[in-house]
Write a structure and sequence with these properties.
Elements (H helix, E strand, L loop, with lengths): L1 H26 L1 E4 L13 E4 L3 E2 L4 E3 L1 E4 L4 E4 L7 E4 L3 E3 L5 E4 L4 E4 L6 E2 L2 E6 L8 E4 L8 H4 L8 E5 L4 E4 L12 E4 L12 E6 L6 E5 L10 E4 L5 E3 H6 L3 E7 L15 E4 L4 E2 L11 E2 L4 E6 L3 E5 L4 E2 L16 E10 L4 E9 L12 E2 L6 E6 L6 E8 L8 E7 L3 E10 L9 E4 L4 E4 L5 E5 L2 E10 L9 H7 L1 E6 L2 E6 L4 E7 L5 E5 L6 E5 L7 E8 L4 E7 L1
Parallel strand pairs: 1-2, 2-5, 3-6, 4-7, 5-8, 6-9, 7-10, 8-11, 9-12, 29-32
Antiparallel strand pairs: 12-17, 13-16, 14-15, 14-16, 18-26, 19-25, 20-24, 20-27, 21-22, 21-25, 22-23, 28-29, 28-34, 30-32, 31-32, 31-33, 33-38, 34-37, 35-36, 35-38, 39-40, 40-43, 41-42, 41-44, 44-45
Length: 554
């Protein structure tokens, strides 16, 4: 009797356990059959598509399964959607598809996740003309060159050998290898009128650790590595540079039409860890992210290998794509343009960055392009080559002087003007000294026009932050030598001239929320002020009794 009772009790417990397991399993899965059978997808659910679906916003899932000839489309365009998946992706069935429209992203978090079946990942190149190239890198496995661009002439697929510093012809049937850059010419039926190339990668999406080999940069050979983003999502420039030995990156824009069968290297936009400059031919400067499908050139500090990882991948930010082409350290940059009346253009950047020195810093300083009718650069002693990007020792010092150089192949009228500056310089003067006539011009007030003969001039212009010819610089020196910066829940106050005597902080209503006397230091960190994205007034009294007031959004 007791035995039968015990058996029935155990059977009942087993029945309850089966129900519990069934409910847990059901709670972790939602199926699209025209509507969701178990609520909207989220990162805790396995998401199954058995019927066609078009995204209405970003989607998160524990895993993705597309079957039964369903066609799932992730919307791209101006407001692209993001599919974030923790684990595996499976696309099965002859007609089943998982399509990512242009600018849409696939972000996987688990580096060990296994993907099966192909996705269709669309990327539009910036409009191209006949005989023009775009730099690509495949975000999927097993994609052939000819399959990606079938109308490109058979001898117009190229990769690059960094060791020999030469282009390599690729056979059309060759498979695009992960992290490798490829230069692919526009379709042979293109004309002189720019057309958008609608590229489509078809294959199993790349995920997890992807190794790549690089060769050390030789400043004499100028041998750069031709690599690319291996993922179907954007990657962070900062994360890539922090976890590799790469230094400067060059993105081909091809703003300039081909002339006499020759391309111009003026069309490279440049990016370092903290800033970028536009190509000589114009366009936008590279930002903080490298889009999916993008190939680019990069310098490397040593000959070695490094690994692209999922930690470099970011959600969205997949829109800035060049053809033929987190936490950021504290930095303040100034971008200057040199132009002439014939349309020549050159942009440089210089500024102040944590970890930088006033000497040459690999990965921070980038050599200037020497191509074109004009070249423009800043100088780093004792190096004779000019730099398109120069990072200098942080913090900024009002007494700093930066030498500028230029080369003109055409005599005539030229203009130097500020393109843009970091907000740090909004309340500071930027003077251009012309040593040829001992004058100072404030570029914050207007551009500077000058005339030059043909030649190289490395000592004519200098950048100052005060007018040394002025007889009344005391106030401006004190005013411009105190600066504040907000980071997390800290406010850093720096004085590069006098020591700080007292500091007071007021909120937007004029209430005193911090008061520190007898600081007696050039730098002071204010802690434990809650960041609320509101205006604060930082009042700093220096040892010479000069009071400097700064506004900070914190």
């Amino acid at each position: 009797m007791i035995k039968n009772y015990t058996s029935k009790y155990l059977d009942f417990l087993l029945f309850l356990l089966l129900i519990l397991v069934s409910n847990i399993s059901q709670a972790q899965t939602t199926i699209w059959t025209g509507s969701w059978d178990n609520g909207d997808p989220d990162i805790t659910k396995d998401v199954v598509f058995t019927t066609s679906y078009t995204s209405t916003g970003d989607i998160s899932a524990k895993s993705i399964s597309v079957s039964n000839d369903a066609v799932v489309t992730v919307i791209g365009g101006v407001t692209p959607h993001i599919l974030t998946v923790e684990n595996n992706i499976s696309v099965t069935g002859a007609l089943s598809k998982l399509i990512f429209e242009n600018n849409a992203s696939l972000l996987q978090t688990n580096p060990l996740a296994t993907n099966t079946g192909n996705i269709n990942f669309k990327r539009n190149a910036t409009p191209m003309r006949v005989l023009e190239y775009t730099y690509w890198s495949s975000p999927v496995a097993a994609q052939t060159l000819v399959g990606f661009s079938p109308l490109t002439s058979t001898n117009r697929y190229h990769s690059y050998n960094t060791t020999t510093n030469a282009w390599v012809n690729e056979a059309p049937a060759n498979v695009m290898q992960p992290t490798k850059g490829y230069a692919i010419m526009s379709p042979s039926n293109y004309t002189s009128t720019p057309q958008t190339f609608n590229g489509e990668f078809i294959g199993v999406p790349n995920n997890g650790d992807v190794p790549t080999n690089v060769v050390a940069f030789n400043p004499v050979l100028l041998n750069y590595n031709f690599i690319g983003n291996p993922y179907p999502s954007a990657i962070s420039v900062i994360s890539l540079l922090d976890n590799s030995n790469l230094g400067t990156m060059y993105f081909w824009t091809h703003n300039t039409a081909i002339a006499s069968n020759v391309f111009t290297t003026n069309d490279y936009a440049v990016r370092t860890r903290t800033t970028g400059t536009a190509a000589v031919s114009g366009g936008t400067a590279p930002g903080l992210y490298i889009a999916a499908g993008q190939g680019f050139f990069a310098s490397a500090a040593t000959t070695t290998s490094f690994i692209f990882t999922n930690s470099m991948r970011v959600a969205g930010n997949n829109g800035q794509f060049y053809k033929n082409a987190q936490a950021v350290p504290l930095n303040y940059y100034i971008h200057l343009n040199l132009t002439n009346t014939l349309g020549a253009f050159k942009q440089i950047a210089f500024g102040y960055e944590e970890g930088a020195t006033n000497g040459y810093d690999f990965g921070t300083d980038a050599l200037a392009s020497t191509e074109g009718a004009i070249t423009f650069y800043s100088m780093i002693s004792p190096i004779t080559s000019g730099f398109g990007i120069q990072g200098r020792a942080y913090p900024w010092n009002v007494n700093d002087i930066i030498d500028l150089g230029f080369n003109a192949t055409i005599a005539g009228d030229y203009t130097i003007a500020i393109d843009h500056v970091n907000p740090f310089f909004d309340d500071k003067d930027i003077f251009l000294e012309d040593t040829s006539n001992a004058t100072y011009h404030n570029l914050k007030l207007s551009s500077f026009d000058f005339n030059t003969a043909v030649g190289t001039f490395n000592s004519r212009f200098k950048i100052h932050y005060q007018n040394l010819l002025s007889t009344n610089n005391n106030f401006s020196i004190n005013e411009n030598s105190v600066f504040v910066n907000g980071n997390n829940n800290e406010i850093v106050v720096n004085s590069t001239s006098e020591k700080i005597k007292n500091i007071q902080v007021y909120d937007v209503l004029g209430r005193l929320i911090f008061d520190k006397k007898n600081v007696n230091e050039n730098k002071f960190v204010i802690e434990n002020i809650q960041k609320q994205n509101q205006a604060l007034i930082i009042k700093t009294e220096l040892e010479n009794n000069q009071i400097v007031t700064k506004k900070l959004i914190f």
